[in-house]
Amino acid sequence: MVNYTNRVMIALESCMGQEFAWPDRQGRATIAEHFAALGFPGCVGLVDGTLVKLSQRPRDDGETYFDRKSNYSLNVQVICDQHKCVIYFFAGMPGSCHDLTCLKRSGLWRRLDSAQLFDRGQYLLGDSDYVPLERLVCSYKRTGGDMDKVFFNTCIAHARVGNKHCIGILKARWHSLKGIRTQLRNARENAYVIRWIRCCNILHNFLI
After folding, report:
1. pLDDT tens-digit series, residues 21-50
2. Which of 94, 155, 167, 171 is placed for a possible disulfide with 65 were both Cys, Cβ 3.0 to 4.6 Å?
């Protein structure tokens, strides 16, 4: 069974470039056009974090995987487009880690200024767990009763609901993401779980 599973994952990963890839310049322009109609011209993706529950406490540093929902989990950063297709994900950080911390550890963070990923004026849309940057627009943590800030947060929540739907569909289709049965006893098992999550994302995009 393990061999068959590995073969399937290898086959899926060979299709990764077709079903799971950062949009090219034309693709980003199409995404930006969609979000411009929602009041966010230049937005080329929606970013959010989700917790993937583990069935057991990891052997090493298990306490760091204990999340705010009192489960052991991994924090997975998911970026999707207007069609709820996943264009980037980053997994492997413990569930107790803040979304911003996880995003900063990703390869994408190190390439935020890359002209290959963003054209001038393009950015990602996130919630208040992130910080505002040239390539990252997020909602206010505190509005202080300022109606302009309240209105902005309402608009950003309306635009970002697509990411919530994307993650919801992803987990509904692949129930293993609601509780992966492993203890994460070593780096090899950790890498295997990340591959599993990657394959779920690839299948999700294929079905979308």
Report:
1. 899 999 999 999 999 999 999 999 999 999
2. 94
Locate all alpha helices (DSSP H) within 82-178, ordered by sequence: 99-104, 147-173
Backbone φ and ψ of 32, nearest 5°: -60, -35
Cα separation values, 143 from 44, 47, 139, Å: 25, 21, 9
Where do the domains of the chain lie?
2-207
Long-range CB contacts (within 8 A, 24+) of 87-90 = 87/20, 87/21, 87/22, 87/23, 87/45, 88/22, 88/45, 89/197, 89/198, 89/201
Return the beta strands (E) in 32-141 as ranges.
43-53, 73-80, 86-94, 123-126, 136-138
Residue 17, pLDDT score? 65
Amino acid (one-letter) located at 133: L
